[in-house]
Amino acid sequence: MPFSPFIQMQNTKRVVSTYNEIISHKVRISDRQKICDDFKKVYRADNLENAQKALQDFIEKWKTLYPKVTKPLAANPYILTFYSFPKSIWRSIYSTNLIESFNKQIKKYSKRKEEFPNEESLERFLVSQFEEYNQRFATRYHIGFDKARAELENLFKMKE
């Protein structure tokens, strides 16, 4: 199977955001701030080497107290994939703010509709929301992507 930067990006987005949620929900409240701060050092490191070191430090520090949190981190090869992309888009890759915002918007507008008479009406509604969203953001770039456009184009062309 050929290398796909897009697939790597999807794996990374799912992994980092998922681990943030797992960590914040599966640890004691008294440890939550400390463990979340330690995990931030992993995905906010300056480069891949520092991130790998921070991940190893994180796992070593917390593995006895929270093995269910640290074992999946140690076993996941995609956790640091976003470091292979331009630095200006790292935050956009490991953060799910844009997705969560759109999902919240869909939820808000669909609640206004008491009931959809059938699946087709729900589908039409969703398609209209996606279309409106695409039109609104068609000419806008997400944080850092405009700055990294040339580098991303080269990355995708080289790997195809």
Number of domains: 2
**What would you report as the Rg, rounded to the nearest angstrom?**
19 Å
Helical fraction equals 55-70%
The poorly predicted ranges are none
Put the structure in a nutshell:
The protein is an all-alpha fold and 160 residues long. The mean pLDDT is 78.
Please explain how this structure is put together.
- With about 160 residues, the protein is mainly α.
- It has two domains: about 5-95, no CATH class; about 95-160, no CATH class.
- Helices cover about 70% and strands about 0% of the residues.
- The chain contains eight helices and no strands.
Write the topology of this structure.
Layout: H1 5-25, H2 29-43, H3 48-62, H4 67-75, H5 90-94, H6 97-112, H7 119-137, H8 149-159
Helix pairs in contact: 1-2, 2-3, 3-4
